[in-house]
Amino acid sequence: MNQVLTVPRRLDDRGAVSSWSYAVKGLFLLPLLIQATIVIYDSLSFRYGWTVSPVNTIVGTALSITFLVAIAGLTFLSFLLSGEIDGIWRGMADAIESAQSEERPESND
User: Fold this and answer.
1) Is residue 55 within 8 Å of 80, Cβ to Cβ?
2) What is the pLDDT of residue 105?
3) pLDDT for 12-48, tens place per residue?
């Protein structure tokens, strides 16, 4: 199952970035955007929650903000890890290309 998520780029299109890579990066941002929306609506309804239960309002808002910070950190780490994986694949592609060029005999025609 790991191979499904880590399929390398083709060796011959090294400069091209497919639109799927942007879709994957968008999926990384989805939990962050959803939690940010939750925090915004929690802050907008804080006054109404305070009239019903001040303690629960404070706890709920604090947890929402804590989860937002945690998700932001995990999203950042996901982008870093994705960049590292791309670097590993680029390095392997370079190694494969150099090994293939060393195996081919040079023709002097």
Assistant:
1) no
2) 63
3) 665 556 667 778 788 889 999 999 999 999 999 999 9
CA distance 17 to 57: 46
Q: Take residue 27 and report the two structure tokens written for it.
A: 């999926």
| CA quadruple 64, 70, 73, 77: dihedral sign | negative
Nearest to 75 by CA among 30, 14, 12, 37: 30
The answer to whether the Cα torsion of 16, 18, 21, 22 is positive or negative is: positive
56 vs 21, more confident: 56
Count Cβ atoms below 10 Å from residue 35 Cβ, excluding itself: 19
